[in-house]
Write a structure and sequence with these properties.
The complex is a heterodimer. Chain A has helices at about 25-30, 55-70, 80-90, and strands spanning about 1-10, 10-20, 45-55, 75-80, 100. Chain A is an alpha/beta fold. Chain A has one domain: 2-Layer Sandwich (Transcription Regulator spoIIAA), CATH 3.30.750. Chain A has a 5-stranded mixed β-sheet. Chain B folds into 4 domains: about 60-175, Beta-Lactamase, CATH 3.30.450; about 180-285, PAS domain (Beta-Lactamase); about 345-565, PPM-type phosphatase domain (Phosphatase 2c, domain 1); about 575-710, Heat Shock Protein 90, CATH 3.30.565. Chain B is α+β, with helices and mostly antiparallel strands. In chain B, helix 1 packs antiparallel against helix 2, helix 1 packs parallel to helix 8 and helix 14 (about 590-600) runs antiparallel to helix 15. The model of chain B has no long low-confidence stretch (mean pLDDT about 85). Classes of the chains: A alpha/beta, B alpha+beta. The interface of A and B includes residues 56, 58, 62 and 63 of A.
């Protein structure tokens, strides 16, 4: 899987492509490091091309949220498919994030 | 005059009161001594009654029997030896007389010998013939130990029945009575009063005249007494009456004799003899000191009043104690019943097992038990019967039930469960033993492993009704370290295991006929023939109706317990099996998705269902790789997928350290982001996605089993 960070319209956008499973999580975590310093920018996690996420991926999402919130940034999730949304519902993550289409 | 008159009245009154006082003291003395003798003898009675069942079970296994008797003598140091006297020609090859005897030698070792012979013809001896008839046991006449210390010995006999209830002989426990005169003479109510103890036949067992002891009969010992009342008195004593009499002794002096039988079934009687002169000596001199008498009378009166008040108080106390006891017994009964499973069906959401249990104690509390629970897809169950009844048995029952629960919570082999409970219960002070059957049924496979500790073999009801072939072994609590042998059997769909305690087979009608195993089998067969199988609840209802109508008006003599378990898992042929082996490297998780997707595709899962399965398996595997291996240790995981037309099952085995992922508590998914812990989600997801998850440690491996019911749409 690949993770790309772009700055689009003042927001930090992380674009995920492929399967975010336990094997892929360590690399993804490194790729997400630029988001740690999101001072003044909102964060968008673009899941349009993400086909799968396991708890290791959810942990990364949670960690992004935990760092961004105290800095006053919003974290949005964008373009999530129904299967992923189901996982977010099951784990209660659906209530932690804001969603954007 | 007035004072004189008053003092005469006082004298009359006081002498009467003194008479009453003496009587009270003598009766108290008799009661106390009787109780002390009983305290000495009762353990022997209980121990002998308790070993009877064990002897009966092992009559045809002489070597086992020797071990049992030696261990039993070890635990009953007051018993000198045990004989088993069989009815004439019971073993045709051993001849008419067969009386094996085990004797404790002075060096602590045991000697086994055979005593019966034409010259030692126990079959026509009184103690044997009486012993056969005395169903509650009987004490023989005392006799002098032929060897060694020339001590007074007595034998407690108890009838021996075979497993079908036929009388086949008696057991005899020899006990030394060297303590007897010490106990009887420990106190005397007056300085010159003395105590007597005589046997059922009148033999003097305790007497102030040494030469009478064991040599003279009461009638001979009193032959020099001229008073005609002595004959009547002797007969009253020997016929077990209690009361008092005044007689004139050899010297013509008046003596008060108080007598009563010793409680229990010894047939012994005890008497307290006090001199009239001694009792009233003080009173005569007081006649001449009227004022003193008045004062003494007043003092005596107030003493009597004090005693009377005290005795009223005592009665109240006794009543209060009795009420409290009855109340506590009710509570005990409730507690005991609450230890038994009582919700039926116990596992409503399972379709592979149906269970029904039933227990009625003969008294408020009893010594029967049964229990069952499911752990790691295995059904653990047991039935047991503690020797004896009532409160002592119920305490042992509670202990055994707790032991079963705690041992079976970490041990899956029935032999080891039984052996473990045995080793923990051998040292019970009361010499109780427990017959028990423990079964462990592998619910997915239908494989029943079991071990029997001296309990009746359960019935297997399927196409026919037959006994489960069991090794009888020994009851629990008899021999430390006994190697229990178990067995195993594959159960087919619909097979019912029926377990019961003695109380069913040995339920008696008024004429003492027993219900017997044949009737149990017949009832089971009839039900099976009528309904094609024996479902647990109808089976037990039918059995309990049958035994009730058989017993009729007779009082329930023993605790009655039944437990029926039916294996109801339908066999489904496997339609898919796949497997995958990984090393404990998180990178290898990449290999999981293709494996799981292939399995799901073969079963026709849609995309959403496939993703759920992917997620569940990945979470389970990641958990194991993360937690079951110490850092740097390499290992392998095997994943087996198996499906039939009902369920898909994944079994993940790894060779890591013991790690039970299911022991982890669920995360709280309602917490806000800043309070959400980072970990714990994985196993939570597995639980959400699968129908069942079970962990087991088998042969040094962690085995995690995940199941998902197949939906028709998939």
């Amino acid at each position: 899987m690949t993770t790309t960070i772009k700055e689009i319209e003042g927001n930090l956008v992380a674009i995920f492509e492929g399967r975010l499973d336990t094997a892929a999580a360590p690399q993804c975590e490194k790729d997400l490091q630029p988001l740690n310093d999101c001072q003044g920018h909102d964060v968008i996690l673009d899941c349009t091309s993400l086909s799968y996420i396991s708890s290791s991926g959810l942990r990364l999402f949670l960690s992004v949220l935990k760092k961004a919130k105290p800095l006053g940034s919003h974290v949005y999730i964008k373009g999530m498919n129904a299967d992923l949304r189901n996982v977010f519902t099951m784990t209660g993550f659906i209530n932690l994030f804001e969603f954007k289409d | 005059m007035l004072v004189e008159g008053a003092s005469m009245v006082q004298y009359w009154y006081a002498s009467k009161k003194i008479g009453q006082e003496v009587r009270q003291r003598a009766e108290t003395e008799l009661r106390a001594k009787s109780l002390e003798i009983q305290n000495q003898l009762q353990p022997v009675e209980v121990a002998t009654q308790n070993i009877e069942g064990l002897v009966a079970r092992n009559i045809h296994r002489p070597d086992t029997l020797k071990v049992i008797i030696e261990k039993w003598l070890d635990r009953n140091p007051s018993i000198l030896g045990l004989c088993i006297c069989f009815e004439a020609n019971y073993f045709p090859e051993r001849g008419r007389w067969y009386e094996p005897y085990t004797l404790r030698r002075s060096n602590g070792k045991y000697a086994h010998m055979q005593l019966g012979s034409a010259s030692h013809d126990y079959l026509s001896s009184d103690w044997y013939l009486q012993g056969l008839k005395a169903m509650d046991g009987r004490w023989s006449e005392p006799y002098m130990d032929a060897e060694g210390a020339r001590a007074m010995v007595c034998t407690y006999t108890f009838p021996l029945h075979d497993r079908s209830g036929n009388l086949i002989g008696i057991l005899g426990s020899d006990v030394s009575l060297e303590w007897l005169s010490r106990v009887v003479n420990a106190t005397h109510i007056y300085p010159s009063s003395f105590n007597l103890l005589v046997s059922r036949e009148g033999t003097m067992m305790v007497s102030p005249v040494d030469s009478f002891v064991m040599r003279a009969n009461l009638r001979d010992a009193t032959s020099k007494i001229k008073d005609a009342a002595i004959h009547n008195l002797n007969e009253r004593i020997l016929s077990g009456e209690s009361g008092h009499a005044v007689i004139r002794n050899e010297q013509g002096e008046r003596e008060y004799v108080f007598f009563a039988p010793v409680k229990g079934n010894t047939g012994w009687s005890m008497a307290v003899v006090c001199s009239h002169k001694e009792i009233y000596s003080g009173l005569r001199s007081l006649l001449f000191r009227m004022l003193m008498l008045l004062l003494a009378g007043l003092a005596l009166l107030s003493f009597i009043i004090y005693r009377a008040i005290k005795s009223f108080k005592h009665i109240e106390e006794v009543n209060a104690v009795q009420n409290a006891l009855a109340n506590e017994l009710n509570i005990a009964s409730d507690i005991q019943m609450s230890m038994l499973p009582k919700t039926y069906p116990p596992f409503p959401d399972r379709d592979d097992i149906d269970i029904y249990g039933f227990l009625t104690p003969a008294k408020a509390v009893g010594g029967d038990l049964f229990d069952f629970f499911i752990r790691n897809e295995k059904l653990f169950f047991c039935i047991g019967d503690v020797s004896g009844k009532g409160v002592p048995a119920s305490l042992v029952m509670a202990v055994v039930r707790s032991l079963f629960r705690s041992v079976a919570s970490h041990e899956a082999s029935p032999e080891r469960i039984i052996a473990h409970i045995n080793d923990l219960s051998v040292d019970n002070e009361s010499n109780m033993f427990v017959t028990m059957f423990v079964g462990v049924l592998d619910l997915p496979k239908g494989l029943l492993r079991y071990c029997n500790a001296g309990h009746d073999a359960p019935l297997l009801i399927s196409k026919d009704v037959r006994s489960l072939p069991v090794e009888p072994n020994l009851p629990l609590g008899v021999v430390l370290g006994w190697q229990f042998k178990g067995g195993e059997i594959q159960l087919d769909y619909g097979t019912t295991i029926f377990l019961y305690t003695d109380g069913l087979a040995e339920a008696e009608d008024i004429a003492h006929n027993q219900f017997r195993r044949e009737r149990i089998i017949k009832e089971a067969e009839n039900l099976r023939d009528a309904e094609g199988m024996a479902r647990p609840e109808p089976l037990i209802t039918r059995m309990s109706d049958a035994v009730q109508s058989f017993v009729g008006e007779a009082e329930q003599s023993d605790d009655l317990t039944m437990l029926a378990l039916q294996y109801t898992k339908e066999h489904h042929a496997a339609i898919l099996t796949r497997s995958l082996t990984l090393t404990n490297d998180l990178k290898q998780i990449e290999m999981l998705a293709p494996f799981v997707e292939e399995v799901c595709k073969s079963l026709g899962f849609d995309g959403a269902a496939t993703m759920k399965m992917n997620l569940a398996i990945e979470e389970a595997v990641a958990n194991i790789i993360n937690y079951a291996y110490p850092k740097g240790q390499e290992g392998t995981l095997h994943i087996d997928a198996e499906a039939n037309d009902e369920r898909l099952k994944f079994t993940i085995s790894d060779n890591g350290s013991p790690f039970d992922p299911t022991a982890r508590e669920d995360v709280d998914i309602s917490l806000p982001a800043d309070k959400r812990p980072i970990g714990g989600l994985g196993i939570f997801l597995v639980r959400q996605l699968m129908d069942s998850i079970n962990y087991e440690r088998v042969d040094g491996q962690n085995v995690l089993t995940l199941r998902k019911k197949l939906e028709p749409t998939q």
